[in-house]
Specification:
By secondary structure, the protein is mainly β. The strands form two sheets. Strands 3, 4, 5, 6, 8, 9, 12 and 13 form an eight-stranded mixed β-sheet that branches. The protein has a five-stranded antiparallel β-sheet with strand order 2-1-7-11-10, with no helix packed on it. Strand 10 and strand 11 form a beta hairpin. It is globular. The protein is built from one helix and 13 strands. About 10% of the residues have low confidence.
């Protein structure tokens, strides 16, 4: 009898530990929009499409305006995205340069050619929280400046500023 009770207890404890905690934090109100997570508040990033300009040896992705209206003091910001069409796993982060009153990222046309001051993809960590809800964490210290996150191979951008 004691063995049966002990086995039932072990099974019950195993079932409790097997249950995953449900995410209880804020959820994005719109799908395919990247939100900065500040405590329990979600702040939508500046979403848009970069204009591609082909130049000698590079393709520049340009956003209007010298700075984003979305600002964060966090040097390692955290984002949430409810993914429908945008693949969270393919998001890439780049620091933007300010040139002629616009923000831009210049990508070399030939991946084998080295270009002075070519942008480097910054590290992000993407974790699935629920079926289509993802947490995107910047996995390195960001200096003050303008940044954009974009799905790989897309001109869609989500911009923000670290101050």
């Amino acid at each position: 009898m004691k063995r049966v009770a002990l086995a039932a207890c072990v099974l019950a404890c195993g079932a409790l530990f097997a249950q995953k905690d449900k995410y209880a934090g804020p959820k994005p109100p719109k799908p395919d929009m990247l939100y900065l997570l500040h405590a329990s508040n979600l702040i939508p990033t500046e979403a848009g499409e970069a204009k591609e300009e082909t130049r000698k040896d590079v393709t520049a992705n340009v956003m209007k305006g010298a700075e984003s209206n979305v600002k964060t003091p966090m040097a390692e910001p955290i984002f949430l995205i409810e993914s429908d069409k945008v693949s969270a796993e393919k998001l890439e982060l780049y620091k933007m340069d300010i040139k002629n009153g616009q923000r831009e990222v210049s990508i070399p046309n030939d991946s084998k050619k080295r270009i002075k001051n070519a942008p480097k993809q910054l590290r992000v960590k993407v974790d699935r929280i629920e079926q289509s809800l993802y947490r995107v964490e910047v996995n390195q210290w960001l200096d003050n400046g303008e940044y954009c996150m974009s799905p790989q191979g897309s001109v869609q951008v989500f911009c923000f500023q670290v101050f």
